[in-house]
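Same chain as my last thread, 552 residues:
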Amino acid sequence: IIHCTSAFATGGVVSRSNSIISRFSSTPLLAMLSDNSDKMIPSPPFCHLNGISSNDGNSAALSLASLEGLIVKMEDRRQAAYDLSRQVNKALITCRVALGEGGSVISGESDHEKELQRIMHLVLNNEETTGTASATPEESDKEHKELPPREANLSYRIEDYIRYRSFCHFLQTGRLIGPSAFASSDFQINDEEYLAGACIGLSRDLERYALGRATARDVHSVQLARNVVSRILEQLMQFDFRNGPLRRKYDGTKYALKTLETILYELSVTSSTDAVHTNNDDTDPTLPDAKRMKIDADEKKTAVVKSEEDKSIIPVDEMLALQKRMEQRDESREALIKRCRDAQKDSKNAIFAIHRGNMDQAEKLLKRAEDCITNDLMPIVKKVPSLRSSGCFAGVLEEYVEGKLFYQWMLPTNSKEEISIGKGAIVVPSGVLLSPQDFAHLQVDPGEYLGGLCDLTGEVGRFAVQCGTVRDKAGVQLCLHTNVSIRNAIEGLTRVPSPVGKKMSTLRFSVEKIERILYELSLVEATGRKHFKADSIRGMDRDENVKIDDDM
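reply #2:
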């Protein structure tokens, strides 16, 4: 054997190996090996699903072919958005470099600026990547239009673009650009993108800009930057930002203002006379009363003029309108969260009712949850499309899909087919799985359906535990067939949404646990014992806080 192995390992001739083997053809060892050759070959893997046919009425055959095209299309659109995002980032970097080298792109006539405008036109008017189409003239005349969520990270790139445009506008006018500058058929932005880019992002840019101008002892430019940031902070302090990206970025505006005031102070103590202008003549007791009164009047007049100038620095009316829209949007979000709790609670309670065998109550709870989604939640999402991707709404749909799938799967094929468990009863389930088309009226996307489908395997696993306690091998096999079918169907997809991929390990684990239950049932059957402590059954629900009696 060693000679044969060496011959094959070194690329030896097969005839030499055959000649070596022929020497042992008549030996007792080879004869013994030949007689026991069948015993040395292992058996094929055991099939736990023997007796369950794919054509059986109680089988859980599942096909996700209808989702394949949708998922691929979604992923392609997402990838296209990332490609556009990289193009925008490259064009912005080129324009910023050119601006820092001499400000040649402020006029908007350079090649770099034209390339940036061309790419942004593709981004903001590409329905495939942004979910929005070009606005019609009628839509452009409307006061405001709510936009759906952006694909991938395009929202951050649009913020960067707005930030760049705002900085260029400041260099030209010394003022803050208003939201109306982007309210056209060519550029559609939402309020969060404007605040993050034109206000908060600009403040950080002016912080760096002022540092450079202070190096050149340009006090006037630093003061203009300080005035704009100060007015921006005054307006932002009137907003009630919830916990999120805007709330975290908002603190940067305060730091930027502090830096600008520090720079002005440092310029004032280094002989820059224009850095801080004070007039204390009115406090001089040696001045006549008439002169002090005249100085007070002049200062009040100057203060009024300064106040009017500060108001013109930023578009106050547009900012107030934006603040009102955000308050209304927050009210819609709060209403959505509250109603989502009700629908999610009903869906979860329906699952509990199914486990108790109360199918009538489960049906009522699922109907109430569906009515809540249709009549209460969908109108809010339609009014504010950005809430469609919120975690609370997606969670409700996923929970409802799980409950509805479990209810349909548990519907008995025959009301007389039931087995007793303790004081209650377990119906023999039909094992039917609803398809994605059954949830089309709720506009459930592939990720939400697949998420509910993965969660269903946990409920099926719990039912397998109940079947195992009464030694219902056929019921456990049906549960295993269901979870295996779901696992194979999802793994057979070319692509899966990222949240679904995180649930696959739990799905595979549920399949292994049910196989363990079948193994332990075979031990019980072999020993003829009526009671058996199944460690795997207790372990399966250890994380779910489900109590299993030790004497089952």
